[in-house]
């Protein structure tokens, strides 16, 4: 009898134990790969940040000084609202650039004619050119020397100011299309694509689109920063792309492992367009093990020892409609009850 029981035990549980051992080995290899990948991402992020900071720092400081000088020299600041911001205004700005270039040329020719560089009588000609700065929402638009139009973008989050960004357009004549001469927009945002698609046909739309790209990027980045600061002890892993349009993180401070995946179809989006929240049971109960073994005995459970995740619909709905910190708080608040309903026997003996 004992021999028959041993054979029965071997037939029933050995395949299960082998599969369990195989799954454990797979988990170890997966964790090793994940750790290596996490290290690569960390080093890549540090390198990217350093390169971006070093390459953009000098351009930012120089353009910032130029914009400050233009602001200091302005004779008038005009705030535009609604339909006041239109293509006609850009035509006016380009006309002012033309007039400004002509004024500089006249002064230069007069200086050469008189051969008196220190004579102040030739300088007042510059004052006939009115220097106006236009304010459109969080954008400041002004004329810069050298036939250039400067746009300064102010970003913010939760009412607090964040970085400033600059974009300088070159406008040599009405016969030539405007081009982006230089900028401080992060390299991973599609500025050149926007330039090719919009600038030549609708400069106003291009200027607005770049502002939307920058503000949405700052919004997504700051949302991730806040959940890391507030809930960092609950987050086991967190990955994101440079523009923060792909975000993934794992919650491990619970009975189940919860994976969150967010995708933003548009870089001007603040809320994700694709959301996935899955709960993975960390431990199987004796009842589930016995059930798995029985299933294997019948020949229908080739991968029965593998845990099956459950979708957390309430969490996905929260992430689609709330900011990431607000949605995270909602998820954590209702997570114990949701897990109890999905896995009612997860704590049973």
Automatic annotation (TrEMBL):
Pfam families referenced in this protein's UniProt entry, alphabetically: CENP-O (PF09496)
Primary localisation category: nucleus
Protein location: Chromosome, Centromere; Nucleus
This protein's record includes keyword Ribonucleoprotein: no
Coiled coil: none
GO terms for cellular component: Mis6-Sim4 complex; nucleus
Signal peptide: 1-19
Keyword tags: Centromere, Chromosome, Nucleus, Signal
Family: Belongs to the CENP-O/MCM21 family.
Protein name, entry field: Centromere protein O
Species the sequence originates in: Rhododendron griersonianum
């Amino acid at each position: 009898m004992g021999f028959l029981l041993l054979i029965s035990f071997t037939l029933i549980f050995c395949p299960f134990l082998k599969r369990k051992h195989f799954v454990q080995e797979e988990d170890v290899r997966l964790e090793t790969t994940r750790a290596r990948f996490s290290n690569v991402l960390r080093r890549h992020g540090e390198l990217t940040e350093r390169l971006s900071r070093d390459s953009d720092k000098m351009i930012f400081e120089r353009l910032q000084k130029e914009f400050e000088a233009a602001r200091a020299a302005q004779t008038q600041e005009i705030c535009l609202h609604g339909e006041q911001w239109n293509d006609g205004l850009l035509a006016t700005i380009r006309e002012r650039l033309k007039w400004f270039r002509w004024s500089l040329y006249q002064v230069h020719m007069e200086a050469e004619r008189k051969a008196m560089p220190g004579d102040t009588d030739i300088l007042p000609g510059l004052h006939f050119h009115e220097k106006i700065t236009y304010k459109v929402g969080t954008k400041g638009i002004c004329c810069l020397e050298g036939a250039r139009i400067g746009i300064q973008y102010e970003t913010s989050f939760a009412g607090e100011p964040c970085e400033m960004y600059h974009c300088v357009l070159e406008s040599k004549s009405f016969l030539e299309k405007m081009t982006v001469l230089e900028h401080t927009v992060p390299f991973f945002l599609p500025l050149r694509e926007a330039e090719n698609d919009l600038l030549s046909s609708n400069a106003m739309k291009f200027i607005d689109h770049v502002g939307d790209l920058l503000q949405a990027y700052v919004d997504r980045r700051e949302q991730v920063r806040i959940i890391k600061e507030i809930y960092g002890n609950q987050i086991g892993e967190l990955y994101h792309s440079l523009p923060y349009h792909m975000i993934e993180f794992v919650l491990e401070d619970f009975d189940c492992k919860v994976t969150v995946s967010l995708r933003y179809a548009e870089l001007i989006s603040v809320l994700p367009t694709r959301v996935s929240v899955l709960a993975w049971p960390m431990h199987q109960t004796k009842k589930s093990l016995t059930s798995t073994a029985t299933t294997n005995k019948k020949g229908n459970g080739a991968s029965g020892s593998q845990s099956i995740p459950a979708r957390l619909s309430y969490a996905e709905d929260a992430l689609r409609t709330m900011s990431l910190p607000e949605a995270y708080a909602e998820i954590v608040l209702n997570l114990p009850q949701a897990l109890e309903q999905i896995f009612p026997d997860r704590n049973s003996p």
